[in-house]
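Hi L.,

You mentioned the student needs an example of a multi-chain input paired with its predicted structure. This one should do, with 227 residues in total across all chains.
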Amino acid sequence: ETGVTQSPTHLIKTRGQQVTLRCSSQSGHNTVSWYQQALGQGPQFIFQYYREEENGRGNFPPRFSGLQFPNYSSELNVNALELDDSALYLCASSLVSTYEQYFGPGTRLTVT
Amino acid sequence: AQSVAQPEDQVNVAEGNPLTVKCTYSVSGNPYLFWYVQYPNRGLQFLLKYITGDNLVKGSYGFEAEFNKSQTSFHLKKPSALVSDSALYFCAVRDSGAGSYQLTFGKGTKLSVIP
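Structure written out for the whole complex:
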């Protein structure tokens, strides 16, 4: 089975721009979650999708939005980028019937 | 609200010695508890989980963790540390009663195993 993949690996954007990050879930997984990991911190929950619907959201503003597609791949969109959005963005997939989440390698976003 | 505390930013241990990485948690309901490991410039790798049952759970690479409900702790342990265990370790909790699968992570503990 294939693991969770994310693209791109690295990204540099300018403040005020918009960015789209992509995630391909582990085969058979129907739930995807996105996390933001700032330097020196633990991952912070952004939101989760199940069956293409948002199923929980952390303390992030509406300019963070997402999509889950029928093949369970997912996108994270961030509008009006701010310097503090610079972080490692992690995607994690799981099955409803299990408990652990499996993480991708992440996308390193730098906002200048 | 749920939270996790990892009181040690860094733990140093000699190769071959036992290691412990500490974690305490707070949730409204019953906890689901997890340990993940992160190597430099990599995503998080699942090590082990406590859902229910035996308080001592065993995971990957010889790691184990002990759930203590009265102390709200879930410390990670290994009987004999390897240099290759050097990495960043995260404890995470999820409230079993919550509708979403949100994991709340601690800030992480850097483990250094000294040859």
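You could point out the following to them. The two ends of chain A are 38 Å apart (CA to CA). The interface with chain B takes residues 4, 6, 31, 33, 35, 40-45, 48, 55-56, 58, 90, 92, 94, 99-106 of chain A (CB under 8 Å).

Best wishes,
N.
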